[in-house]
Every structure is written in structure tokens, then in C-alpha cells.
Amino acid sequence: MFLLAQVMATANGLRRNKAILSELGDEATTQFIVSKRALPKNGLKDSPNVHFCDVSLPRETGPGPAIEQADSEEAEEKNVIYRTVASIPIEDSEMVYCHLFQLNSCYQAMAKNNKMIVFTDDMNIRKAFYALIYNSARTGLVLDSRTYCLSSVLSATDFIMVLMKLWKFREAITSITGLQLTEEDEKRTDITEMPIRSWKEHLHNDGKLKPFQTIDVEDSLYSAAERLSSSRIHRLPVMDPHCGDCMFIITHRRLLHFIWQHAALLPKPEFLRERVRDLGVGTWSNIKYILHETPLIDALDMLMNEKISGVPVVRDEDGLEVSFASEHNLLITVIFS
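The line above is the sequence of Aakg-3; the predicted C-alpha cells follow.
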């Protein structure tokens, strides 16, 4: 959370990291004021630009009538909390979001209400994905049933890959034999009944299974963003190093939401005023799209082959985009159609 330096003396403690705007004469400088113990273990703690100082803050009072205190130094001492804070000036506005991530741990980005779904790897794929859908979740963690350690992540992409492999396998059998599969044949070839462990081993044998990665809750958000980008993954479980439990899963969406929460009181980098195309963000050539008449199986096949998470839906007559089909939307259509 953020607040102004002028009201720092009346803040209710430093439970979350703060960015403070302080005015020195005619020059306005922006600096982060961070509780020392809240600094990430791999952030800017050892940077020469970090200055530590002691501050006194009024003790937070609970609800109810105020308790009268004797007018003495001892009473005043009881109403004050002392904190050691770090002051980090922001000299380059282009780096403000970078510093924001470096000075905040992954814990700071955790939502107030969080839901975690964990499957053992001996559960079959069909049941696992129905559980995700009925719990309005897009991702679940997979627990090794033999060691009870987290081993992988199960997402909508896995289920789409299973559906495509099943569809193509049955199509190949039908084209070779020239006969439609019987109900018993369909049950025998239904790979959605295989355990999650077998599916992950199949991906590993095909070279499509990425190593399972996690990050400590005390690590900086900058480390999380760097890991997501360098490993080209979309989900990163955040672990408690003390008990080994997963606290939540950090995503690109969660990181962007964290910036949005705090952007109002931070300097605006110049690149925010530039056009998206000039920054080279997004796809501006060879754009993939589908039509209203495109079969669902072809749309799913496009997502998997092009390694994209969604495609625009355009009209035949004028090519105007009228909708957007994401992995999750298509998966809901498959399950409930």
C-alpha cells in the first residue's frame, strides 16, 4: 500500500511496504519507505542507495471507547511503536516498477481470499478437470502420491492437449479401418481415464514437460517476474520455506494487478505514454484468427499448434473482430456441450 510522507507520522504501522512522496523545497522526490524486516531476502537490501533509519509510529488502537492514559512519559511510550525502515530514492522514473518489484516480496501480491486445489497424481485426468471447472479454478497442483511432495501443475492446456491427442488418435484409426469406433472401442482408447502421473510421464517422453519450478514467499516479485519470463511459464507456485506448503500461485495477471494497485501514487514512466505498437508489444503480423463457422476442434488445434492462449473471432463479411476465444472459454464449451 502507499501513502504520503506528510501522513507518515499518523500511519498505523508498516505492515505492508510503502511508497512515500516527500517534498524537499521546490524539488519533489519520490522514495520508497520500506519496513526493514519486510524487505525481500533477494531484493535491494545490500544496495548502496538504501538508507536505514528508525521512526516512531502511533500504536494501532482497537475498536471501542478510548482508554484514558496518565499524562506521563511512560504512557506516551506505550502508545508508540518503533520501526527500522529503509529509504530508497527513485532517481529514474523508467525503473519505478522494477524497484517496486525488487522491494516487495511475493507475499505482498497474495490475494486476501485465495483458493488452492491439489490433486494426487493417481487421480484420473477427467475427474481432475471436472474438479477444476466446478471450483471455478484454472490451475491445480499435483501431489506425488508416493512422496507427498508437489510434482507439477495441471492446467486447462493439459486438458486441451489430452482432447486433441484423443481426437487425432481416433481419427487415425477410423481413416485406417474405414469403420466407426464402437462404444467399447471408445472406452478402451479414452486416455482421459489415465492417471495424471501417466499423462505427465507421456509429456516427459515427448519432450513437452517443462521442469516444475517454485519460488519462496520471501523472494522478491522481481525474481518471480524474471522466472516467469525466462522460463516461459504462466504459473509459479509460491512456497512457504518454513513448512513447505504452497501459499498461492503467482501469474502475470497477479503481477499486473499489483502494479495497478500501486500505480496511482508512483511516477509515471514515459513509456506509458507511447503507443503499444511502438513498444513492440503484441503481435502485429501473421495474426491468427477464427471465423464463426470454424469448427471447435480446429480452434483448439490452432491454440496448441501455435502455442497461444486465445484467438480473435472475426466476421466473414468485413473481417471485424466480434469476440475472443480463450483456452478457458473453449474448454468450458467442450465440457458442457
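Note on the example: Residues 1 and 162 are 42 Å apart (CA to CA). The two ends are 44 Å apart (CA to CA).
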